[in-house]
Amino acid sequence: MNAEIQTPSQTVPLELTPNNDEASKSGITPGESLQKIVRYDLREEGTHVLAVSLSYSENIISKSTTSGGRVRSFKKLYQFQAQPCLSVRTKASDLPSRDAGEEKRQGSGLSRYALEAQLENLADGSITLEHLTFEAKSPFRSSSLNWDIPHLDTQQLETPTLAPREVTQVAFLIEEHPTNDDELAKEFTKDGRALLGVLTIRWRSAMGDPGVLSTGWLTSRRI
């Protein structure tokens, strides 16, 4: 038995688990069933096809002997549509620059940005946001302004649950830190936008299924 999934861009072989069960080695007795599980993280929108192929031989049992029959095989195709579960819209706004200190940069300010993201639940059921991370590109560093901020005098805020089509806002403070390494200096796109980093969102559906989404490189406004 083997399985593969055909995505809009590629075909990927899948591992079947458990892969060392006794039925796969010794065969299936009358009335017995064999079950396998495949896992695959959906990363593309559009039509997907799960193809499962099975080859087997029938044993012909008589009163005196058991003889092997001919080998048979068949293939089943399961087609489904993959749609995005979460919509993300981002905006990076300039903040007043922060002076790095005379001992590090005399008179020069360091860039600061407020990154805002609007998250909309596109799924048919509710989802619970579990974790937000912004992987800032050096020399930037990020600070979360969301429910995971440590609170000294209050209880930790609960992670938000979004009903279908519900929207929530999240934000990060992104600050440039001084560096003397030219390789860690700010990088810019061709149209003069600073590369800030990548936003990653993790969530779970109402049935507990995990989901993850990572944006491409997020940038500042054109300088």
SSE layout:
Layout: E1 2-6, E2 11-14, H1 22-26, E3 46-61, E4 66-82, E5 86-99, E6 109-121, E7 127-136, E8 140-144, E9 161-162, E10 167-176, E11 195-205, E12 210-214, E13 218-219
Antiparallel strand pairs: 1-2, 1-3, 3-4, 5-6, 6-10, 7-9, 7-11, 8-10, 11-12, 11-13
Please outline the major beta sheet. Answer: 5 strands, antiparallel
- Total count of helical runs of at least 4 residues: 1
In whole angstroms, how far apart are the ends? Answer: 57 Å
Which band does the percent of strand residues land in?
over 45%
| Percent of residues in helices | under 10%
Q: What is the number of strand segments?
A: 13
Oligomeric organization of the protein chains? single chain
Q: Cα-atom Rg, whole angstroms?
A: 27 Å
Summarize the helix and strand pattern as letters.
EEHEEEEEEEEEEE
Protein structure class: mainly beta
Q: Averaged pLDDT, please?
A: 84
Instruction: Specify the overall morphology.
Output: elongated
Which consecutive residue ranges, at least 5 long each, have pLDDT under 50? 100-107
How do you describe this structure in short?
The chain has one helix spanning 22-26, and strands spanning 2-6, 11-14, 46-61, 66-82, 86-99, 109-121, 127-136, 140-144, 161-162, 167-176, 195-205, 210-214, 218-219. It has 223 residues and is an all-beta fold.
